[in-house]
Specification:
Radius of gyration: 22 Å
Oligomer: single chain
Number of helices: 1
Distance between the termini: 70 Å
Strand content: under 5%
Largest sheet: none
Shape: rod-shaped
Structural class: mainly alpha
Order of helices and strands: H
Number of strands: 0
């Protein structure tokens, strides 16, 4: 069993919350990038090729 002094509980909660917020931002950035690529592919496939 892990023992944790009562004075460190708040600091631990802050570290966990900070890590969670950073990870959420990373995931949101990845999602935005993937959506931009999907939109670019959709536009590319929708408009006819002018060389044809």
């Amino acid at each position: 069993m892990i023992t944790l002094p009562i004075t460190e509980i708040a600091a631990l909660g802050t570290q966990i919350a900070t890590h969670g917020a950073i990870r959420a931002i990373e995931m949101a950035g990845d999602d935005i990038f993937e959506m931009m690529i999907a939109i670019a592919i959709l536009v590319y496939e929708t408009y006819p090729n002018p060389a044809s």
